[in-house]
Amino acid sequence: MMMKKANKIDMSFFEKYLTVWVVLCMAAGILIGKLLPGIPEFLGQFEYYNVSVPVAILIWIMIYPMMMKVDFKSIKNVGRNPKGLFVTWVTNWLIKPFTMYGIAALFFYSIYQAIIPADLARDYLAGAVLLGAAPCTAMVFVWSHLTKGDPAYTVVQVATNDLIILIAFTPIVALLLGIGGVAVPWNTLILSVVLFVVIPLAAGIATRVSLINKKGEEYFNQTFLPKFNNITIAGLLLTLVIIFSFQGDVIIENPLHILLIAIPLIIQTFLIFFIAYLAAKALKLPHNIAAPAGMIGASNFFELAVAVAIALFGTTSPVALATIVGVLVEVPVMLILVKIANNTVSWFPAGLSEKE
Question: What is the pTM for the complete model shown?
Answer without folding.
Answer: 0.73
